[in-house]
Write a structure and sequence with these properties.
71% helix; globular; 11 helices; DNA-binding; Arc Repressor Mutant, subunit A; 2 domains; homodimer; Tetracycline Repressor, domain 2; mainly alpha
Chain lengths: 217, 217
DNA sequence: GTCTATATCGGGATAGAC
DNA sequence: GTCTATCCCGATATAGAC
């Protein structure tokens, strides 16, 4: 997508960085190109020198995010590890992607919530490829008798939902004073650990019969 | 909040309904008061007869949503059931709340993603009361030795994240053609079942030792 | 490539008749 | 309570000098 072979943080890169902040915090409609320009220490006209429009700027940023996440997910799925390890790696991949590109989760969430209004069909399909990739891992585990049947989308929601909420909620969390929310600080590793546990449990084959819980020690 | 004792779907109610659609689909900044007026089969001026501003209209809608959800959650927490049953009931309560008020999930998500910019402090605290309520259930289960220690927020994310994604993603899902995503139709009960399973597994006390998975049949 | 204007318009909000 | 007409600001986008 980026046609310029620039390496140094030139104006274009600064615009992209500033626009990510802005879009993530305010959404497409709430984003303000004047603010972006100021944050990039540039003039608004420069934005339109580098990008056709606000929409094009947004689309480029968003597609780059999705592509990066999808690439990592596919790498995991194509690796030779066993299914459970792949699931764990998938979770880590998404988490690290989100940690590396802190603006990805919020934009992703908004786009999903908005029905994908600000992206083209191709990008929308890329979004769908993520759960599809997860589905391949599940199919593999199922063929080996290690996973039970589960709708890939529900599994995807079970992983991505908590993860994305964790990242995205940081600003609200800091504004909320409710003790139970503030009490213990939250680290990404804690979130990952919980999601791994819940996800692998959700994938475990059914026990032959009986109650699902409460086996006496 | 609503000062009018009106019962019939008068203009005010129609505005509220239309505004919910609009805010949910487009977010606060993307929402257009002209569209709201048209959808309510009214004039834009009528909106400002009933509500002080776009922001006030939004705030009223949002707070009503949160209040309703929180009320149900507290009802569950205060019930005499055992902790695991309460957890299940909590999940159902949130799910039914979302199903009954289809615009709640999207607005909630956006507000969290935006750092709560469009709501006042009091409403923000209400948002925090939801995980806090969940925390009370966990504390109870822990005191009885039935749950392990877990950060209430992480548990909350594990429940609300998948649920909200499930509801919110319906429009995108319909636009995506990726086979794995479209294949099996998704029902709310399926989502609830998966979330219950994953959540209760996440709460189960640790086994004495050893690997967390793969006990041979 | 970078800047200072400025054109243009969508949309929140109001005036005032009925 | 409901309408039409309009104000007016903010925000996207562009023109054109340097």
């Amino acid at each position: 997508m980026a046609k310029a072979p620039k390496v140094r943080p030139g104006s274009r890169a600064r615009i992209l960085a500033a626009a990510q902040d802005e879009f993530a915090a305010r959404g497409f409609d709430g984003a303000n190109m004047d603010r972006v320009a100021r944050a990039a220490r540039l003039n608004k006209a420069m934005i339109y020198y580098h990008f056709r429009s606000k929409a094009a700027l947004y689309a480029e940023i968003f597609q780059a995010f999705i592509r990066a996440a999808l690439d990592r997910a596919r790498e995991v799925a194509d690796s030779p590890a066993d299914p459970a390890t792949k699931i764990r790696a998938f979770i880590r991949a998404v988490a690290e992607e989100a940690a590396t590109r802190p603006h990805f989760p919020a934009m992703w969430l908004r786009e999903v919530a908005g029905g994908g209004r600000h992206v083209d069909r191709a990008t929308l399909e890329l979004i769908g490829e993520l759960p599809a990739t997860l589905g391949r891992i599940v199919a593999e585990g199922r063929a080996q008798g290690r996973f039970r049947a589960i709708h890939p989308l529900l599994l995807h929601f079970g992983i991505v939902g908590p993860l994305v909420l964790f990242f995205v909620s940081r600003p609200v969390r800091q504004r909320i004073t409710v003790p139970a929310v503030r009490a213990v600080p939250l680290a990404m590793e804690d979130a990952i650990a919980e999601i791994e546990r819940a996800t692998l449990a959700a994938l475990a084959p059914d026990a032959p019969a009986g109650r699902p819980q409460g086996r006496p020690s």
